[in-house]
Specification:
It comes from Biomaibacter acetigenes. With 344 residues, the protein is of the alpha/beta class. It contains 14 helices and twelve strands. It has two domains: 239 residues, Aspartate Aminotransferase, domain 2; 92 residues, Aspartate Aminotransferase, domain 1 (Alpha-Beta Complex), CATH 3.90.1150.10. The strands form three sheets. A seven-stranded mixed sheet has the order 2-8-7-6-5-3-4, sandwiched between helices. Strands 9-12-11 form a three-stranded antiparallel sheet. The chain has a two-stranded parallel sheet with strand order 1-10. The protein starts with a strand and ends with a helix. It binds pyridoxal-5'-phosphate.
């Protein structure tokens, strides 16, 4: 059976153009800085994000963790939103790898209020850790792919700098945010000292993420990447797909957003299902299925039998993600399948 896979945009496969670009890629040893395709991808990424330099990393997780290491010293404290990816899905790396502790703030639709951030910054006191970093996630995954409003980003960046603190943006889906806001991605990236974004999600590359920042930041980060085993040799094969991702796939994300909205509107009419439509901004739809009297994993199992894959756990909630390869008729089929299950 052919599945309609709505679990994540990470399931996207490389396009034919990517496969051809990979086959033909000119490569060299990137640890020596001699891979022309990696160098081209890094230059392109730095330019698009409006930063001095960029570095290819194996995954978003590696990128975030390397950035935290580069911005902080052990014993310091960093401020994050309580449901962010770095806290939830990175295996406790903050403490293990960087030796920092986390100060968590509850956000609204994933956005931390700048006043709350300012109140959480530690004083210059012998007892307290130094606050050295603020992390923002844009779009915010667990909040439903929500976009952090520009004025919040700007105020966060300004107050961080008043306090001598850096800002890291987990921008795994920053191109979805830029598509939603209809601005060039550098307009968003300018409110962070470092940004990580993924090539391997909605942008369809098979492997890889990018970290951008100042020349000085990236040169220190390269050393941490090497320490973490992320110094790759003929990585240009991966970069070749990444270049297609940046050139082509960043321009088609509105299609995924339109499909997500269609999906959310359809699901929201089903009795027992509730969706906060304010959170449906990009390609993620989080459904409260409390009224169906089943857990997310139960609904996910029953949808699987109908050829549809979604992510759900022990809570009465499921997540749908639209992406390249999901068409309008797939969305319609998914809505019909949920309708049938809700009626049973
Ligand atoms: C997917 C994701 C990451 C990590 O990316 P991987 O490549 O899966 O390690 C980081 N942050 C957010 C918000 C994500 O959605």
């Amino acid at each position: 059976m052919e599945f309609i896979d709505l679990r994540s945009d990470t399931v996207t496969l490389p396009t034919q153009e990517m496969r051809e670009a990979m086959y033909k890629a000119e490569v060299g040893d990137d640890v020596y800085g001699e891979d022309p395709t990696i160098n081209k991808l890094e230059e392109m990424a730095a330019d698009m994000l409006g930063k001095e330099d960029a570095m290819f990393v194996t995954s978003g997780t590696q990128g975030n963790q390397v950035c935290v290491m580069t911005h902080t010293r052990p014993g310091e404290e960093i401020i994050l939103e309580e449901k962010c990816h770095i806290i939830t899905y990175e295996v406790g790396g903050l403490g293990y790898l960087s030796g920092v502790q986390a100060r968590l703030i509850k956000g609204k639709h994933g956005a931390m209020n700048p006043e709350d951030i300012e109140a959480a910054i530690r004083e210059d006191d012998i007892h307290q850790p130094r606050t050295s970093l603020i992390c923002v996630e844009n779009t915010h995954n667990r909040a439903g792919g929500t976009v952090i409003p520009m004025d919040i980003l700007r105020r966060t960046y300004e107050l961080a700098h008043e306090h001598g603190i850096s800002v890291h943006m987990d921008g795994a889906r920053i191109f979805n945010a830029a598509t939603y806001l209809k601005v060039p991605v550098k307009e968003i990236a300018k409110y962070a000292d470092s940004v990580m974004f993924c090539l391997s999600k909605g942008l369809c590359a098979p492997v890889g993420s990018i970290v951008v920042g100042s020349k000085e930041f990236i040169s220190r980060a390269r050393k941490f990447r090497k320490m973490m085993g992320g110094g790759l040799r003929q990585a240009g094969f991966l970069a070749a797909a990444g270049i297609v991702a940046l050139e082509k796939m960043t321009k088609r994300l509105q299609e995924d957003h339109d499909n997500a909205r269609l999906l959310a509107e359809g699901l929201n009419t089903i009795p027992g299902i509730k969706i906060d439509m304010d959170t449906v901004q990009t390609n993620i739809v989080i459904c409260d299925i409390g009224g169906l009297n089943m857990t997310g994993s139960e609904l996910s199992r029953r949808l699987f039998e109908k050829g549809i894959r979604v992510n759900g756990g022990n809570s009465p909630s499921v997540r749908f993600v639209t992406h390249h390869g999901i068409e309008k008729q797939d969305v319609e089929k998914a809505i019909e399948a949920v309708k049938l299950i809700a009626k049973e």
